[in-house]
């Protein structure tokens, strides 16, 4: 486990872009929730693409607006960013739609162009918070899924993940009632009835995935237990994967506060994952 201490960025980074402007919305399906917001830097574009996946325990009351401040900050610093919305529980989501949407939304990057050219998909890193951390890490392991599973056979493969307080072991999260009934609501019921769904949807059950995963989490998190990240990293390393736990201060939501030390830790990770 690594603990990083870094002062939050004040916006004076000389390598930052001057501003990203307004994002452009692109639909990847016919449902109102099947879209992403593409943010482009106005100057100093860096290699790679970043996918932002918001949290909210997969529930319809929480949407893409949670990821917008992160996406705007990343674009200001020079990255192309895809802030992805998806169907959530209570509005057409749940099994298998939520997972299928995330997969389709990421694959949709292969069809998009920026400034008349294709996006740089050599390196694609997903940043996800809470339930979004689950979705980001799950998406990184799509190539290992059975052919009939939602999200299998990816077109665009993630090359790195930053899981911010991610829900990474769905079986344990359901047993411990993380988010109340959030996990069984996502998967349609308990593991005793839907064991295969839990296996196909839980990042810890996918190991190994051969994609670097950085788990950023606070021991003071009262929403998603710190042990979700501790145990995932331990299991991933035992399986031979490149995984690391970075301990940060603050509560569950410090990770999506762009002025926080927790967010500064995420920013420090990206150049290594995007090889720039």
UniProtKB/TrEMBL annotation:
Residues 1-27 are annotated as: Disordered. This is Alpha/beta hydrolase. Keywords: Hydrolase. Residues 7-23 have a biased composition (Low complexity). It comes from Jatrophihabitans lederbergiae. GO terms for molecular function: hydrolase activity. Residues 38-232 form the BD-FAE-like domain. SUPFAM superfamilies: alpha/beta-Hydrolases. It holds the Pfam family BD-FAE. InterPro entries: AB_hydrolase_fold, BD-FAE-like_dom, GDXG_lipolytic_enzyme.
